[in-house]
Amino acid sequence: MAIAGLLVSVALLIWLALRGVDIIFAALLCSLLVIITNDLPIAQGLTEYFSFGPLGAFTFAGKFFLLFAAGAMFGRVMGDSHAAASLAMAMVRKLGAHRALWITTLACALLTYGGVVVFVVVFAMYPLGLKLLQEADIPKRLFCAALALGAGTFTLTALPGTPSIHNVISSVSLGTDLFAGFWLGLAGGIGMFAGGIWYLERQRRLASAHGEGFQPGPRDRIVELSDSELPHWLVACLPLVVVLLTIMLPRILLLLFGEDTLATESALSQLLNFANKQPIVWPSIALFCGTSLAVLLFPAVRRNALHTIGLGTQDSIMPLVNTAAVIGFGGVVTKTAVFAESTQYVLESSLPPLLSMFFSVSLVSAITGSASGGLQIFMQTMAPAYLEMGIEPETLHRIATMASGGFDSLPHCGAVVAMLTITQLTHKQAYRDVGMITVVIPVLVTLSLLGVVALGQ
C-alpha cells in the first residue's frame, strides 16, 4: 500500500499537471494521498511536512518571497519602460530575428553562469523575449524551452566553475572545488548545449512549416512603438548591467583584494561577508537597484512608478505559491519510509557503482521534483557509501551534480511550474519541449559520460 501510494501520487501529480489542473490543488491532493497510504500523521503531515518542514511549502515561500518579488518588479519595470523592447530590437538588428532562440539561450546562460538565480533570469528575460518572439514569429513554447536550456541545464550542473547551488552543494559535501571534474563538466556542458540548440532549431523550422507562430498570453503587454519612441539600447541595458555587476561584485572584489580581506574588520570585509552569507537577499538587493535605476532613467514608468512596481509585486505571487506547493509535496514524500527504503535499495543493488550512483541521484531528484533538494539528500545520506566503493570525489561531484539536473525536471518540478506560470503557458502547451531540453537530453549526455568514464577505468 505504501509503495503503491507513493508511486500513484507522483504519477497523479504529473498527470494532473499535464491536464492543466491547478497545481496547488494537485499538490495538496497528492500530498494527502501520500500521507494516508504511508500511514503518516495527517495533522503533522499537512501542517509540518507539507507546510513548514525543511522542504515545506511555506518554508520555501518565506525563504524566496523577497527574491520572487524583486525579480517580478524588475521584469515589470523593464517591460513597461520599453527598455526590454529596445534591447530586443537591437539584438534583432544585429543578429537577425530568426536567431531569437540562440539569443535567449546564450543570454540566460550568461546570466546564470554569472551567478544570477534561475527565477530572476526568467523574470528578467521574459519581457525581452516577448518582443524577440513577436519579431521572429516563433511560438512561445519554444521560447520557454530556450529559457530552460540557457538557465536550467548546462550552466547549473555541468560547466565547471558555475556558482550554482547544485555545484556548491557537491563542493561543500565532498571537499572539492567548483571546478571538480573539469573535462567531464566541459564535455557535458557542450553536449547539453549542442543537443538543446539542435532540438530548438529543428522545432522552429517545423513550426514555421506548419504555420505555427507567436501568440501572446492573456497578460502579455507588447506595445507597438517606433524605434524613435524606444529608449536607446545602451541606456536600456544599464539596469540589467547594474543587476549583474551588483550580484557579481563580491566575486570581483575577492579577485581584486584576495580572500584575506574576509578576515579583516574593514567595511569591505563586512560587505563581502554579508553578500556571501545572503544568497537570496543579495540578488534581491541587486534587483532593487536595477529597478530603481530603471525608474530614474525611463519617463514611461517614472510618472507612475509606485503603481508599476506594485503590479510587479502582484506578478510574483502565483509563481511563488505554485512553486511552493510542489516543493511541499516533495517535503511530504521525503518523510515516508518507502522513500528511505527505495534509495537504500538502489544503493545496495548489484549495478556498477557509477550507474548505481546515477540512479540514486535521479530517483531522489525525480520524487522530490528538485535538483538541489535531491542532490542535498543524496550527499547527506548516500555519497559516503559511493566514495567507499572507489569513485573519485571529483568524478562523484560532477556526475552526481549533472545527474541531479535530469529527472528533477518532470512536470511536477517547482522550477518548471514557476517558469510556465510566469510565461502563461500550460504543461500541455509547453512541457513536451521543456522535457526534451531539461530531461531527455541531459540524461542522455550524462549516461554517455558514464560510459566514457567506465571505459577509461
User: Percentage of helical residues?
Assistant: over 70%
Topology pattern, helix = H, strand = E: HHHHHHHHHHHHHHHHHHHHHHHH
The biggest beta sheet, please?
A: none
Radius of gyration, taken over Cα atoms and rounded to an integer in Å: 22 Å
Structural class by sheet pairing and helices: mainly alpha
Number of helices: 24
Mean pLDDT: 85
Tell me the overall shape. Answer: globular
Number of β-strand runs: 0
Structurally, the number of domains stands at: 2
Note the beta-strand portion: under 5%
Q: In whole angstroms, how far apart are the ends? A: 42 Å
Poorly predicted ranges:
none
Structural account:
With 457 residues, the protein is mainly α. The chain has two domains: 2-57 and 323-456, no CATH class; 63-311, no CATH class. The protein has helices at 2-18, 23-37, 42-49, 57-80, 83-95, 100-113, 118-136, 140-152, 154-158, 165-174, 182-209, 233-236, 238-257, 267-277, 281-297, 299-302, 305-333, 337-347, 353-368, 371-381, 383-388, 393-404, 414-423, 427-456. The longest helix has 30 residues, at 427-456. The two termini are 42 Å apart.
What structural keywords apply?
457 residues, mainly alpha, globular
List the helices and strands and how they pair.
Elements: H1 2-18, H2 23-37, H3 42-49, H4 57-80, H5 83-95, H6 100-113, H7 118-136, H8 140-152, H9 154-158, H10 165-174, H11 182-209, H12 233-236, H13 238-257, H14 267-277, H15 281-297, H16 299-302, H17 305-333, H18 337-347, H19 353-368, H20 371-381, H21 383-388, H22 393-404, H23 414-423, H24 427-456
